[in-house]
Amino acid sequence: MKAARWHGAKDIRVETIEEPRTGPGDVKIKVAWTGICGSDLHEYLAGPIFVPVGTDHPLSHDKAPITMGHEYCGEITEVGDGVDNLAVGDRVAVEPIFACGHCAACREGRYNLCDSLGFVGLSGGHGGFAAYSVVPAQMCHKMPDELSLEQGALVEPAAVALHAVRVSQIKAGDKAAVFGAGPIGLLVVEALRAAGASQIHVVEPSDQRRARAKDLGATSTIDPMHEDPVETIRKASGTGVDVSFEVTGVPSVLQQTIDATRHEGQSLIVSIWESEAAFQPNTVVLKERSMKGTIAYRNIYPAVMELMRQGHFSADRLVTKRIDIDDIVSEGFEALAREKSQIKILVKAPD
Q1: Is this structure's pTM higher than 0.85?
Q2: Domains and CATH numbers, the chain
């Protein structure tokens, strides 16, 4: 079968590999659509970050080259021994987290904080940029009949955004700022709207992405190339927002994310970073602000799909391009790197 595999930075190859086999407790999925994630782009441009190189990942037992793709869905074509909650023909969204199940975080139910955290399609396993994927049955969530398979490919990134909002201190009526209107930033805007934020200020240099943020419910959009985002946000919100979300991974933006909050405000760091970032600790200390990181999601796929049933996180408003796997580098990764008008690019699985 065809699969897109990571061999190194700027080296993703569409190759023919053996179709994966189903073992006990596994299901085999005919992949439908897979989204290209910002994390995938980081691996393409500057990896390895999550991709294991030289040594096998402790849970996937794989190392590069690996089949990429972790934002995906499809239809079950085979179930392994011991699987009784899923059946052939079920349409599923894949929750691609590898977790050990026995470290302190896993024992507390916080499996996204596992000491050996990994992701199918980043840390090994049979990723979604392929015709078929095999994963443990517990990674699969049945999709409501009302949701399209394209919508299913957005469950994973929407889960990242909804989890970030859930673990923040945002309350209905609070004011928020989102730095970065890429796919996750835009999904955070939608999650904030669902959470009842009274103001949502979005900072983004791309004209097209600012327009999309407005369409999705942003109160205001700010071009940081032409105005001071901190000054603009503080003026619009009174004393600063209650919670700000950093979704760019750009080092200079981190301090802005902090400065945009009010006293006792909170900054959520959602990005995966390619390099270090500095900030002045006194800006946190003297206003008793707080900072919090967030990674992935936990126990949230059913809530995401229910919100999708209600019209949130719509593929029609977020997907800007659909491509074949043979074009994944030129029309996918390279397009995302050079065209800031792109939001979410979906890759159609090969036959």
Answers
A1: yes
A2: 2-153+314-348 (3.90.180.10), 159-293 (3.40.50.720)
